[in-house]
Write the structure tokens for this entry.
Amino acid sequence: MGRVAMTYKLNPDSEVEANIEEIVQFIRSFANEVYEVQSVETKPLAFGLQFVQVHVVMDDGPGLSDKFEEMMSDLAGVGEIEVLSMGLL
């Protein structure tokens, strides 16, 4: 089985006041034998808002990226999730 590198952009939910630092810490805790969370960064969006950029390497198995995206979307304050890049290693 191969490995996949993915980069995500997590925008804050506009209807809930998001604690960006809590989101960053929760995503870092997702690291396990399947998901290698390599970096989680906050970046400026606009007008003082920030988004979270996540780079993760995972096994290339059915449904694994969907499960990771679902875990991120379950966090309070996470709005839209966008895949910025994806590639096989």
